[in-house]
Design a protein that fits this description.
Shape: elongated
Structural class: alpha+beta
Largest sheet: 4 strands, antiparallel
Mean pLDDT: 75
Number of helices: 4
Low-confidence stretches: 1-5
Strand order of the largest sheet: 1-2-3-4
């Protein structure tokens, strides 16, 4: 995997960039120290809920010093999420809701096509 700066990334960095966390942020080499004076990181706290996500750990940093936190979704999946996305309402779950909606829409389209085909017979 290649990172934005052109260097070869590790599997842990790939997991981080794709949002999947298995053993927590320490296994990904994330820094857990929040830089003093950063308002964004202090704008959220452990236990705070954003949609279906609950914050478990704050003060993480993604590449390029982007403030992030470790969240647990209602379904049990843990994700590293950008704080600005939580506060803006852009991220509200781990993605399982979107998958469910897409699956339901595909099933509706298939059902409609089935009824249309029967009506043409």
């Amino acid at each position: 995997m290649r990172l934005a700066n052109g260097s070869a990334g590790t599997d842990a960095e790939s997991e981080l960039l794709h949002g999947t966390v298995k053993d927590g942020p320490a296994s990904l080499g994330l820094t857990s120290q929040a830089r003093p004076g950063r308002r964004l990181a202090s704008a959220v706290s452990v236990g705070q809920r954003f949609g279906l996500l609950v914050i478990e750990r704050v003060g993480l940093r993604l590449p390029r010093r982007i403030a992030a936190c470790l969240c647990r979704c209602q379904c049990g999946v843990r994700r590293v999420v950008r704080i600005e996305h939580l506060r803006a309402g852009r991220t509200t779950s781990c993605g399982h809701v979107r998958e469910q909606m897409l699956t339901a829409a595909a099933e509706r389209r298939a059902e409609e096509a089935h009824y249309a085909a029967q009506a043409m017979r």
